[in-house]
Write a structure and sequence with these properties.
By secondary structure, the chain is an all-alpha fold. The protein has a single domain, classed as Serine Threonine Protein Phosphatase 5, Tetratricopeptide repeat (Alpha Horseshoe). The chain is built from seven helices and no strands. Helix 2 (about 25-35) crosses helix 3 and helix 4 packs antiparallel against helix 5. The longest helix has 22 residues, at about 1-25. The protein is elongated, with a radius of gyration of 17 Å.
Length: about 100
């Protein structure tokens, strides 16, 4: 009986994420992501990437989202944002370091 309850909880959480996404409720998505909901995190990364929102991507990357970190490097590279790439490289992001090397050559 317990697994059925867990299934309902997952379905409920999925529905909350879906509803928040449909309504554009980024605050709710952030709350869900902070609570560990990976679907909410993925949606926030997608939305931030679409908007070119480096601040949101930074927050998500700092909370451990590798997808956010990847998108942050990609956006910074597209924009030629050397300062952002240096910040990421200094924090240990090898992709950012590689992009900086490419830009220097």
């Amino acid at each position: 009986m317990e697994p059925h309850h867990q299934q309902n909880s997952c379905t409920d959480a999925d529905e909350v994420v879906e509803l928040a996404a449909e309504q554009g409720d980024t605050d709710e998505l952030r709350r869900l992501a902070a609570a560990g909901n990976t679907d909410a995190t993925d949606l926030l990364v997608e939305l931030a990437t679409e908007r070119g929102d480096l601040d949101e991507l930074r927050r998500l990357a700092e909370r451990g989202s590798t997808d956010a970190a990847d998108e942050l490097v990609e956006l910074a590279a597209e924009r030629g944002d050397v300062d952002e790439l240096r910040r990421l490289a200094a924090a240990g992001n090898t992709d950012a370091a590689d992009v900086l090397i490419e830009l220097a050559t």
